[in-house]
Amino acid sequence: MKYRTLGSTGMNVSVIGVGTWQFGGEWGKSYSQAEVNSILDTAKSAGINLIDTAECYGDHLSESLIGGYLKTANRQDWIVATKFGHKFHSHLNRTQHWSAQEVLKQLESSLQALQTDYIDLYQFHSGTDEVFNNDELWTMLDKQVQAGKIRHLGLSVGIKNNQHQTDTASQVGAETIQVVYNRLDRQPEEGVFPSCLRQNLGVLARVPLASGYLSGKYKPGAVFGENDVRKSHDQEAAAARLRQVEEIQRQEVPAGVDMAQWALAWCLRHEAVTCVIPGCKDEAQVLANAAASELVSAEHRQAAE
To answer: Smallest Cα–Cα separation from 126: which of 207, 72, 168, 180?
Structure first.
């Protein structure tokens, strides 16, 4: 595993993290504590040290399963990132809550669910610019940083080119940006990444496999099941994406290299990107994701062409 410093936080993070939306039960599978423990033990054995979750992956369900693991693990081994601003009600049904008092209540619930005294990275979760521009919210969060309940603040931007929130990150005390970025979705290269480099913001790239389109498992004409989130995607756009992926695999992926691992490493070649946070359904997928680190140079990073 390779490691990079996450912006100005000083935290040394593995270039591959663990995304945990799946633990909330919305990927068509419910997870037991034993299954989560095994996945996270496998991640640790592979050198991964970053877990990314959210309050609304289930009603703090993902956080609770991670907390069940952390109480038996060495808390210092892990950088735990979670998010705020949403409340889970049912499958893909959430409401947003952004007042300082509501977020403070969410923070306490997250700390309780995670069974920890502090959160390493607490992220504003895909809110509008209107709710972002709330001095009372950021003043309250700064007080929680001073109290030691939060180590660092970050932003998980809801759109790939949210220039306002990115450019304002340092002003509200945020030190990281989480954004959708992958070989099919390159918008952050245009404005978000240059701003991150200017401010020394760490970048967490989410959806690095483009919801599985870049996994190499699907060919043009693939049909997704009823419980697959891709079933809700525009089918014509999905077919076009699969044709694009086929072309990328033919022209860009070296012979004998796993496409999913190539796609993770592709994100990490950009000088702005610190870590990718793919999801994983089981231990084998964790190990496959971690192996992408072997395709990454720890020293040489370049702006994407």
So the answer is: 180
Domains of the chain listed by start with CATH number: 3-214+258-295 (3.20.20.100)
24 within 8 A of 57, measured Cβ to Cβ: yes
- The tens digit of pLDDT for each residue in 76-99 reads 999 999 999 999 999 889 999 999
Would you state the structure tokens that stand for residue 83, as one six-digit string? 């998010």
Pairing of strands 79-84, 50-52: parallel
Summarize pLDDT for 263-299 with one digit per residue, the tens.
999 999 999 999 999 999 999 999 999 999 999 974 4
Residue 94: how many CA atoms within 13 Å on its side-chain side? 20
* Whether 111 contacts 120, CB under 8 Å: no
- How far from the centroid of its chain's Cα atoms is residue 195's Cα? 19
From the centroid of its chain, how far is CA 53? Answer: 7
d(CA 180, CA 227): 23
- Interior/surface letters 12-23, b for 16+ CB within 10 angstroms, e for the rest: ebbbbbbbbbbb
Consecutive H or E run containing 155: strand 150-156
Closest C-alpha to 183, from 248, 232, 118: 248
Residue 179 forms beta bridges with which residues? 205
Question: Any idea which residue has 């009823």 for tokens?
Answer: 226
pTM score > 0.90 for this model? yes
Is the Cβ–Cβ distance between 31 and 62 less than 8 Å? Answer: no
What digits encode the pLDDT tens for the residues 152-175? 999 999 887 899 999 999 999 999
Identify the residue whose tokens are 């950088």: 79
| Non-local CB neighbours of 113 within 8 Å, separated by 6+ positions | 60, 63, 64, 67
- What kind and span of H or E run contains 76? none
Amino acid type, 127: G
Q: For residue 109, is pLDDT > 60?
A: yes
